[in-house]
């Protein structure tokens, strides 16, 4: 293979991307060397098993991915702003809508939420870490390297271009030769390992590590949403694992699962993909519901209305999420009976979701609302998400779907649920828990500015797209007809508004770091749940003493009884795991192996795979039992943090 | 309390071990989904043999029956190994684990022989959708057995060096769950792939 086949050539935008990558990488290397921070990076971050630090790394990576996916989106919107514009060519446009979708779902939404779960869930249940801290680090690095593998495709080898759904036979070896599609398959496979491991890890953590006295129906609602999400992950992700593996074997080893030859069944891919893919959208929306519930209860200063109904509706949504996958391809022609069944099951999901909407409204009813930035995101979510949900029910009607299918109506619908649901929640959650993570709040003025820019930009972008869809504009076209010009142009303006909102948000991180007042109490918002009972910055062992839980909203009770998580009479040495570089090295080797497999260099792939197995053997013989934090050290730390 | 500890098996005595075992059960649930997806794929692609031989032309009862007996017996010997562990006999545990592994290796040997035989008869991974799904389903199970053998060898070395401790007993108990799970999967492959494939 010659060098110009290895690197992507002939695209000015991609050359610019290469220059940017080289510049940013050299800047990072220079800064780390200049400030002698390599050791710090290795000791404090790359080898950490602390759930709070891993969570921060998840969120940082997710923000980088939001930037990348957002840049893709803006390029698409520029191309669609005017008819006959030649900003992107057809091939490049195909690649960009493919990577935009994949990056946003797999490498932005999920890691962002998993990052928040990492930081918040152990704190909310009064635990000192995950059940398996080593596995947690492994999960993060598997996601990180999976994202890296997927993202380098645009400068090395060429991006996948068959859509984020990767339908066969288009995505098969015959019609998409070359490494592009392999990047998709192996990047997702690599990060999928981590997601499944996180699901198991969180489930065991929540089931086994809750503070004494905390019953399941006394858990904070975000923890509940995490538990339900873990359940979906455990039962949905293996389906993706198999689907990806089958297509990889098709492409690299010549099997006939989804091919047009050998009596393969291309339509089976669509089934397998959406049997995972539909539960997947609930993996990214249920935690968002959890975040909004926490934020709304805190700033309405009330107990969440209908807590039990909230939990049961999540469980019901999770169960139904496995029974609706066919609604993604009603037009495939499964027949009237099958389509009717899936149409009904789809519309059923609106019932528990509606229950949740009314419970949020019930919480807000007659409360003294505090209009902080996280609360604004939550309040904007409710009406915006309802628009997305109602159009979802329209799409769920099989007969009508024959009109809406693959049009911009659909594009508008899923952006209304995924942005107004998931992305708003990511912003709300980050701003809400930010003081717990970094010891200071984000500036409210800039926070509100970025909120308004983003939310108005969002509606301006996507509301016109419903009408474009009804006007017949199909998705995934690279050139618009003149009759669709006006609405498309408005949509593009909105997209830049969202981009500006994101820029202000990022600036606010820097601005607040410089100017915000540092936290003193650890209870930044007069919170209701246990994470606010810890001092900030949270000591690495989280809780000096575990509180005993008597009911819902544990911290409200504790404040009433004047209790804290630092009871000097009950102090005992705390067992904590040691840092380890093994997860990083193991996943780096798996990354190399996958990279070699993308280019079908079998010897190299096997060589690195042997390296991975060696790392597993090392782990098996590892006798590291962790260490104990002594009582004296806990006393000093807590007194200092609590100003005693 | 004392009597309670006595009756709790060694591998369940620490909280960390309990969590590991629960975590592994949940992992097995994910594995059930993984194999279910492969079985479903096999069922959907059943009969789509294109120009390749039909399964009924190739599947023979003798080898598959030997494989089944080997694997089922290995599950039984694995149970005896755990029984020995509960009685505190390290040498008994190691012996029965080795017997389990030898049976597992025998199973693998027959499976490899069988795959080679089929491919000589013109049924390979790439000859048709049906045969792709057959090889991937049976092969994934075989790969699991292979990994299990490698894993068990590591544990036998650890048992030899350290004896039965809270840590090693937990590890052995977990691999025994894994081994029984593979046995269950094989029973489904034996019946729904081989027996049905022979008659249809």
Automatic annotation (TrEMBL), chain A:
Annotated EC: 1.10.3.-
Cofactor(s) required, per the database record: Cu cation; ferriheme a
Keyword Magnesium found: no
Membrane topology: Multi-pass membrane protein
Keyword Metal-binding: yes
Protein's GO biological process: electron transport coupled proton transport; oxidative phosphorylation; respiratory electron transport chain
Domain Cytochrome oxidase subunit I profile residues, every copy: 34-550
Keywords for the protein's UniProt record, in alphabetical order: Cell membrane, Copper, Electron transport, Heme, Hydrogen ion transport, Ion transport, Iron, Membrane, Metal-binding, Oxidoreductase, Respiratory chain, Translocase, Transmembrane, Transmembrane helix, Transport
GO cellular component, one term: respiratory chain complex
Record-linked Pfam families: COX1
Transmembrane segments: 12-35, 56-76, 96-121, 133-156, 183-207, 227-249, 281-299, 311-330, 336-355, 376-400, 412-434, 446-467, 487-511, 584-617
Family stated for the protein in its record: Belongs to the heme-copper respiratory oxidase family.
Protein's name according to its UniProt entry: Quinol oxidase subunit 1
TrEMBL record, chain B:
Membrane topology according to the record: Multi-pass membrane protein
CDD domains: Ubiquinol_oxidase_III
Gene3D superfamilies on file: Cytochrome c oxidase, subunit III, four-helix bundle
Keyword Cytoplasm listed: no
Catalytic activity from the UniProt record: 2 a quinol + O2 = 2 a quinone + 2 H2O
Molecular function terms from GO: cytochrome-c oxidase activity; oxidoreductase activity
Residue span, Heme-copper oxidase subunit III family profile domain: 1-198
GO-annotated cellular components: plasma membrane
Family: Belongs to the cytochrome c oxidase subunit 3 family.
PANTHER family tied to this protein: CYTOCHROME BO(3) UBIQUINOL OXIDASE SUBUNIT 3 (PTHR11403:SF2), CYTOCHROME C OXIDASE SUBUNIT III (PTHR11403)
Protein name: Quinol oxidase subunit 3
Organism ancestry: Bacteria, Bacillati, Bacillota, Bacilli, Bacillales
């Amino acid at each position: 293979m010659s060098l110009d086949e290895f690197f992507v050539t002939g695209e000015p935008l991609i050359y610019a991307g290469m220059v940017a990558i080289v510049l940013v990488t050299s800047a990072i290397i220079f800064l780390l060397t200049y400030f002698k921070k390599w050791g710090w990076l290795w000791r404090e971050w790359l080898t950490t098993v602390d759930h709070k630090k891993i969570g921060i790394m998840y969120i940082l990576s997710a923000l980088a991915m939001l930037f990348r996916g957002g840049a893709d989106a803006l390029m698409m919107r520029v191309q669609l702003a005017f008819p006959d514009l030649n900003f992107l060519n057809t091939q490049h446009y195909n690649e960009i809508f493919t990577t935009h979708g994949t990056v946003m779902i797999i490498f932005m939404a999920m890691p962002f939420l998993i990052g928040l779960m990492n930081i918040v869930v152990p704190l909310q249940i009064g635990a000192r870490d995950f059940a398996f801290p080593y596995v947690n680090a492994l999960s993060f690095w598997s996601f990180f390297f999976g994202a890296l593998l997927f993202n380098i495709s645009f400068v090395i080898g060429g991006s996948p271009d068959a859509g984020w759904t990767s339908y066969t036979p288009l995505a098969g070896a015959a019609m998409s030769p070359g490494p592009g599609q392999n990047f998709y398959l192996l990047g997702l496979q690599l990060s999928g390992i981590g997601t499944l491991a996180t699901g198991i890890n969180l489930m065991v953590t929540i089931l086994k590590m809750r503070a004494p006295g905390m019953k399941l129906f006394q858990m904070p609602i975000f923890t509940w949403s995490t538990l339900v999400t873990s359940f979906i992950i455990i039962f949905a992700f293996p389906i993706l694992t198999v689907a990806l593996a089958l297509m990889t074997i098709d492409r690299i080893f010549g099997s006939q699962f989804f091919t047009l030859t050998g009596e393969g069944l291309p339509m089976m891919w669509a089934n397998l993909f959406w049997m995972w893919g539909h539960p997947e959208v609930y993996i990214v929306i249920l935690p968002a519901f959890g975040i909004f519930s926490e934020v709304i209860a805190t700033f309405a200063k009330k107990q969440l209305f209908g807590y039990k109904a909230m939990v049961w509706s999540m469980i019901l949504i999770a169960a139904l999420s496995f029974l609706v996958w066919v609604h993604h391809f009603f037009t495939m022609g499964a027949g009237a009976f099958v389509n009717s069944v899936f149409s009904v099951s789809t519309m059923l999901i609106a019932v528990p979701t509606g229950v949740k909407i009314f419970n949020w409204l019930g919480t807000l009813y007659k409360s003294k609302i505090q209009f902080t930035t996280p609360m604004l995101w939550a309040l904007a979510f409710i009406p915006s998400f309802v628009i997305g949900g109602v159009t979802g029910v329209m799409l769920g009607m099989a007969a009508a779907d024959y009109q809406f299918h693959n049009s911009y109506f659909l594009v508008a619908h899923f952006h209304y649920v995924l942005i107004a649901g998931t992305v708003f929640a990511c912003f709300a959650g980050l701003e809400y828990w930010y003081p717990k993570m970094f010891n200071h709040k984000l500036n409210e003025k800039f926070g509100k500015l970025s909120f308004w820019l983003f939310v108005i930009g969002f509606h301006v972008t996507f509301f016109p797209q419903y009408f474009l869809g009804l006007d017949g504009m199909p998705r995934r076209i690279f050139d618009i007809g003149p009759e669709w010009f006006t609405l498309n142009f408005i949509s593009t303006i909105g997209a830049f508004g969202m981009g500006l909102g994101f820029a202000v948000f990022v600036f606010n991180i820097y601005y607040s770091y410089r100017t915000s007042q540092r936290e003193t109490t650890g209870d930044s918002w007069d919170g209701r749940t246990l994470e606010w009972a810890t001092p900030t910055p949270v000591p690495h062992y989280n809780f000096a003493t575990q509180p005993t839980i008597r009911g819902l909203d544990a911290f409200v009770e504790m404040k009433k009884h004047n209790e804290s998580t630092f009871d000097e009479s009950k102090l005992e040495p705390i067992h904590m795991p040691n840092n380890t570089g093994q997860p990083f090295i193991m996943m780096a080797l798996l990354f190399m192996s996958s990279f070699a497999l993308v280019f079908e260099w079998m010897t190299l792939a096997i060589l690195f795979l042997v390296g991975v197995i060696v790392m597993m053997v090392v782990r098996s013989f590892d006798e590291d039992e962790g260490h104990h934090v002594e009582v004296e050290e806990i006393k000093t730390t807590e007194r200092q943090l609590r100003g005693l | 309390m004392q009597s309670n500890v006595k009756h709790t098996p060694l591998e369940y005595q620490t909280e960390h071990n309990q969590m590991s075992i629960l975590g592994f059960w949940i992992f097995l649930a994910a594995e059930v989904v993984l194999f279910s997806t492969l079985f479903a794929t096999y069922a959907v692609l059943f009969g789509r043999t294109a120009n390749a031989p039909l399964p009924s032309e190739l599947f023979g009862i003798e080898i598959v029956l030997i494989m089944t007996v080997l694997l089922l017996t290995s599950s039984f010997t694995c149970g005896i190994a755990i029984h020995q562990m509960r009685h505190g006999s390290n040498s008994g545990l190691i012996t029965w684990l080795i017997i389990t592994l030898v049976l597992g290796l025998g199973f693998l040997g027959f499976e490899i022989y069988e795959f080679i035989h089929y491919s000589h008869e013109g049924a390979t991974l790439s000859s048709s959708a049906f045969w792709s799904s057959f090889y991937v389903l049976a092969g994934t199970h075989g790969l699991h057995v292979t990994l299990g053998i490698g894993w068990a060898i590591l544990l036998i070395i650890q048992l030899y060096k350290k004896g039965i401790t809270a840590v090693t007993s937990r590890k052995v108990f977990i691999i025994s769950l894994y081994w029984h799970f593979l046995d269950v999967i094989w029973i489904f492959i034996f019946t729904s792939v081989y027996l049905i494939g022979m008659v249809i």
